[in-house]
Amino acid sequence: MKCSKCGFENKDKSKFCTKCGNSLAQVHTENASNKSNSSKYVIIALIAVIVVLVATIGYFALNSNSNSVQSGDDSQSAASQEVQSVEDSSDDSDSAKTTSVSTSESKSKEWVSIGSYSGSGSGSKTIKVPEGKIKVELSAFPIKNYATNHLYVTGTNGESGGVDWGSTSAVETRSDSFTYKSSSEEEFTIDYYETVSWEVEFYRYQ
């Protein structure tokens, strides 16, 4: 501790100057006052730092919550949009299925019988067949295996089909079929000879 009178450097705990005997009590008081002031400044600085830290943490916490709420809203919005998309997709799928079924039903066609003829022995007959896509199926069983045994179906439009047997053929049922398409009514002749039984059936695709 320095003496305020002579400037001699004394020990910190000295009450009087060793050199000149001057009282050092005033210096002690000044040093204590300086230390007190320094402590106050340090405390104020610490308080300021703490306030700044609290304010900063609070700011980031509020922003974090705001972002979380916004994120939650965005998630809910995205989920709603996804549900809506699924519903729309489901509606579109149902619509597509309905359209597909309607189209399938409108295009569901099949071969429908429009005339069936049968007999035995020998002879011929003429029939009229309506327009459209036509399929003819025929079969016959001969009395014996003659070279002239036959069943023929011939149209005025040039379409024809039939079965016959030679003298060395097996005595068995034979079948044949053909299809054609016509925009007008056609006439067909069924000619059969020496048969035990025969059958001709006409189908239209509708």
Overall average residue pLDDT = 81
Distance between the termini: 126 Å
Mind telling me the C-alpha Rg?
59 Å
Q: In DSSP terms, counting alpha (H) and pi (I) runs of 4 or more, how many helices?
A: 1
Q: Give helix and strand order, one letter per element, not per position.
A: HEEEEEE
Strand content: 25-35%
List keywords for this structure.
alpha+beta, single chain, 206 residues
Write the layout of secondary structure elements.
Blueprint: H1 25-107, E1 111-129, E2 132-142, E3 150-155, E4 160-164, E5 174-182, E6 186-205
Antiparallel strand pairs: 1-6, 2-5, 2-6, 3-4, 3-6
What does the model show?
By secondary structure, the protein is an alpha+beta fold. The chain is built from one helix and six strands, in the order αββββββ. The protein has one helix at 25-107, and strands at residues 111-129, 132-142, 150-155, 160-164, 174-182, 186-205. Strands 1, 2, 3, 4, 5 and 6 form a six-stranded antiparallel β-sheet that branches. A hairpin with a 4-residue loop joins strand 3 and strand 4 (160-164). The protein starts with 24 loop residues before the first helix and ends with a strand. Residues 96-102 have low confidence and may be disordered.
